[in-house]
Amino acid sequence: MGTANPLQHVPEPLPDRLYEPAPGERQLSVRAVLAGIVVGGVLSAMDVYLGLRLGITAVGSSLVGAVLAYALFAALRPKSPLSVLETNIAQTTASGAGTMAAAAGLVAPIPALAMLGHKLPLHGLLLWALSIAYLGSLVAVPLRRRYIVVERLRFPTGTAAAGTILAMAGRKGETLAQARALLRFGGGAAVFVLAAYFVRPLEEPPIAALGLAVLAKWAFFPTLSPVMVGVGLLIGPRVGASLLAGAVVAWGALGPVASRLGWAPGPVMSMTSGPRGWLLWVGVAIMLAEGMTTLALSWRSLAAGLAGVLGWGRGGGPGASEPLGGDEVPRWWWLGGLGLATAAAILLGWLFFGVHPLLGLVAVALSLVLAQVAVRCAGETDLNPMRMMVSVTQLVFGAIAPGAVRTNLTAAAVTSAGAAQAGDMMQDFRTGHLLGASPRKQFIAQLWGIGAGVLFCVPAYYLFARAFTIGEGELPAPAAHAWRAVAELLARGPGALPGSALWPVLAGALFGAALPLLQACSPRLRPYLPSGLAFGLAFLVPAQLSLTIFLGALVLVGWRACRPAQWERLGQVVACGLIAGESVAGVLRAALQLCGVRPLVGGG
């Protein structure tokens, strides 16, 4: 891996350019696209597993895709290593595939609809995922010139990816060490998780048998999960501590109180009558209030993005009337593709989800507007406010289609895909711009990546759905529960809340709104304030997941303090190895369960 600021090691030979390609340098090669497909496919399947377990996707696939694709070739030791531009194509392909778990809706809207009894056939989900993902990528194409060439927004992840690609090209020995670390930790995690399938106490020690029945009842103990340790290594101490604090408040205080007072008398993990279903609403209130307040405080970026929508047809600002270069994406490509993707999304939404075509058209139009707003925010802050865009969509459709929960979730899925893919494509365009790459070839690579990602992540989702009950047990799907809760609240009003939850929900909303306001008033407080998203998420997942992630964050703190140089080189690679190893093993565990292979010790 590069350092925290990889660009500081790279001279800048041209304005807004880090690299000048050699004449005839290889770029859109078969091997680069295949490397991106393999890496991105694994990332997409990994994110399905992680999303269904924790409600989030792992990391930015552009940066990780660049590192893993280059590390893959370093391990294979070909006669000619990937060139700088080939590595860029590999990361573009990988990022297109890697975002498909979120873009296809497999983390939230699709499982939320399944919980309501609406399950898509495999071919339906494949077509739906392709249509909305291509729609998002096509939206980004005409925005490239405005935001990257004219306004020169930084897009920090894309900028870091460019610097990392150049750093790897200059340090081949270090990249080989990264590849070895990735394989060792990924393989070790996979072996442990498969062993834990047969010997269940390896993963979940018998806490109750040790006289700790109360902790066992509330799942207040760490689980030996490589993926959660890897997430902790990636997110750092502030977010890890926020998860721990949220778990203590939710599962150590509010949950037991709700159970004792009869507000949630059912089993602890029951979504209908137990503390878990009661706590869900408080957590969603915290996350929703924090997200909407953050969105309101970003009004300048929102206004600029909306102004871009209004000026889209007039050329996009000063300098945008300059003639397009030969490597630009042809206008008829994205206009024709946008029309086809729009028609497909509306038709498939009608056929598979029962969304009226007029409402489908509104969903697509809203997605086009909000995707541009999300791209602007990503360019300025590196934060893609996909979650906030989804909340806006759910509020809009709660007003224009009251009571239609399925329509609400489907429309939000379109917006989510548009924000995810448009933001990802623009980060890749920024990387390519810094490296002197061809936008047209990057666009082709992204299309290949999206198609490949669908073929990886959709079957993985179906395998998990058949082997486990999504929304319970091993795959609690907290994001799906949150989306469904918001849709039902908008459809049924306060009556959707469980008894005695109204005041705790209001308190949670006030707490969530206060966090970004305090940060805006005093930025110095930010390191000491919890992340509202992480704090609220801890209400939605069993406490053991939050505790394990916090332990992973502590490992990061210790590693970075004792061996900072080693952490800079290998930290993120080790984290990705742990996450990928358990995710791949999770697919194998699902297959074992479907085949009727039973554990040897513990479990049924």
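^ that was protein a. below is b, sequence first then the tokens
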Amino acid sequence: MSRRYALSLRVKLALVALVLLVLPWAGLSYVNELERVLLAGQERALLATARAVATALHDRPQLLVALPERDDAVRREAEQELQRIAQSEGRLPEESAAPRPLAREAELAARKAKAEIAAILRGVQRTESRLWVVNRRYQVLALEGSLRRAPEAAAEGRWLQAAWRRAAGWLIERPSEDFAESVPDDVLATGRDISSALQGAPGTRTRRTPDGRAVVMSAAHPVWNGNEVAGAVVVEETTNPIASLRSDALERLLLLTLAAFAGTAAVLIGYATRISMRIRRLRDEAESAIDARGRIARLSAGSDAGDEIGDLSRSFSAMLARLAQHHAYLESMAGRLSHELRTPIAVVRSSLENLKLASTPEESRTYVARAEEGLARLNTILQRMSEATRLEQALRTAERERYDLAALVRGCVEGYRLAYAATPFEVQVPSAPLDVSGSPDLAAQMLDKLVENAVDFSSPGAPVRVALQDQGRYAQLSVQNKGPVLPAEMRGRLFESMVSVREPASGTAPHLGLGLYVARLIAEFHGGAIEAADTAARDGVVVRVHLPRAR
């Protein structure tokens, strides 16, 4: 991706924040499931209410045969519709459709029955429910209650809640109590709940009001007179209470989602800003760490944070420290090479100049011999410079084999007794074989470097102690000499290339500080490690090599 279309860290975190949108989806699913449960509960509650009223009317036929006065528009409409349906379906004789004149006694009985049924209905009705009682002739005997809920009183100090509801109304529709409460034309014509109840089985139904603004749920239960169905009790109620609860839940969900999204976005943006500042600071430190001449201008201390950027800062500081060490190594190598090469070059130059002025063959041979010594010294320096490089190349192609390290150490020490006749040697090697995996020639070369270094720093007449110990999974080879202790500033750099603690002396063999570096390379080739420390009595130095045992 090109830099022009690359997304910044803030944009990526903002995209991550969009994952929070799954929260309102989960909340909406939960609210919908809860609404279904509440609607099922409301249906069961309506059926239970209808059953309770029907129980009060069981085996009381005198209440269900009376014809109440048609003094209620809703009741009159319902009764007319019931009679029309009964006529069309042949369930009521034609002559019964017209009202018959009631005797004075029948009218009084009807009024009394009406009052008694109304009293029963008023005793069980709820504020938002409407109850019917229908007889077998589809005559509405009583009708009590209303589907509309009482308006909520506006509480003082809730203007903020009202404002929030108006704002949320663009997304969340709240139920309205302004709906047509009259009985629609098809309620009784297709009312399977009433038909089922008059056939002896309770029934339920859900419908919309004529204007479609509300949903009405009804339940009907049969009224028994002995073994026959004398009528039915119908209980109706809108789903507005549950819809109001759903709207309230969705409004709270919307409010919490917006608050959570805003809070999370603010936290993520702040976090991204902090990360960006830290990255920019790290970039500035990287740009100012090395000057125009390629030198390490300053070293960063690194961050103390425990996150990935802190790790990156500390790694960057460690890298700069290693670069500074390498730069110091290159400078020291140049100085050391200059020092080591200056003497043999001066010897060769002076010998050649004197050779021009020599008058006798004997003087010429003397100057030629001195020039050859200088050239030999130069050759030694070049050989030692290329020794580490040749060794690194040899390690890549060296073949591993299993060999007895104890026998190798014993044989090498016998050779050291002859090579360093002025230095006594103490050897401690186990009699049992101590097998390791690697190259015996390289191991002998490593021991040569360690012994040479120990002899050079050993006090006159003091023995050099070579010991080999079996430490279970590892074999420990140690070379110890008595003499000066390690300088404090060289403890961590002793096994690096071109590092030496020897004082320069004229006339001695050149030392470029490669011996212990070669020993470290060979130890690492064997899968081991090497370390140097002062002796316990601080009267010398001991170098220990840990090599893994062959399996």
